[in-house]
Write a structure and sequence with these properties.
Blueprint (H helix, E strand, L loop, with lengths): L2 H10 L13 H11 L2 H4 L2 H10 L5 H7 L2 H18 L6 H8 L3 H13 L3 E3 L2 E3 L1 H13 L2 H23 L2 H12 L5 H18 L2 H12 L1
Helix pairs in contact: 1-2, 2-4, 2-5, 4-6, 6-8, 11-12
Length: 218
């Protein structure tokens, strides 16, 4: 793929280096970005990945088959470390992390490098922490209304995840019914009283909440 065409396609994924038009394949574009070995495109990869995944366009297997898997996995690690540094959490991240099988120590190593402002080496290319942050922050923030929608969906996702860690599906259903003030059957009320209420009371305990926060910070 010619460089001009690649840059044009890249702009459709939220990195507007040039104006563009027409239909394109996001996975082919991401693979071409990796094969290009262009530093500025690699520094924009976290943005391209986030925008592609948000739109449901990213397919890891397809991208992997079309480029250097090692470079792809390294850029995915850099992306996840950058999201962590910027405090960004996406619904799609957990599923992708399971597919790629990231090692926590590798992710933390890159995260610490970014935090210290140290360059990140990917396939003999040195990526600038500052440009990585600036590129993502600049173009992702420009999607104002979409960010608001993301914030809502992310809040809902976090709540769902937290509830699933504490309650069984049935218990979660009754918890949400109680919260919304919806009517429950006699059987549901009895089950709520026996199995769910105790957990709710524990969650409402301020001292327990403080203790959990301290432990989380260790």
């Amino acid at each position: 793929m010619k460089k001009g065409e690649l840059l044009s396609r890249v702009s459709k994924l939220g990195y507007p280096l040039f104006e563009n038009e027409g239909i394109f394949d996001a996975n082919t574009t991401l693979a071409e970005v990796i094969k290009s070995k262009e530093t500025r495109l690699w520094e924009g990869f976290p943005l391209l990945l986030a925008n592609s995944c948000q739109e449901g366009l990213f397919d890891y297997e397809k991208v992997k088959m079309a480029c250097d898997k090692s470079a792809l996995d390294s850029l995915l690690l850099v992306s996840f470390a950058l999201y962590k540094l910027l405090g960004m959490k996406f619904v799609w991240m957990s599923n992708l992390q399971k597919i790629v099988e990231f090692k926590d120590e590798d992710l933390n190593r890159i995260y610490q490098n970014l935090k210290k402002g140290e360059e990140i080496e990917v396939s003999s290319k040195l990526l600038s922490p500052q440009r990585l942050k600036n590129t993502f922050s600049r173009y992702f923030k420009e999607r104002g209304s979409e960010r608001k929608e993301f914030a809502v969906s992310q809040e809902e996702y976090n709540l769902e995840y937290a509830l699933s860690q504490l309650f069984s599906p049935k218990q979660k259903e009754l918890f949400l019914k109680k919260w919304k003030g919806e009517k429950m059957t006699k059987t549901e009320k009895e089950y709520y009283s026996r199995r769910v209420k105790k957990k709710v009371m524990a969650l409402a305990n301020i001292e327990l909440h403080k203790l959990a926060q301290r432990i989380q910070g260790l």
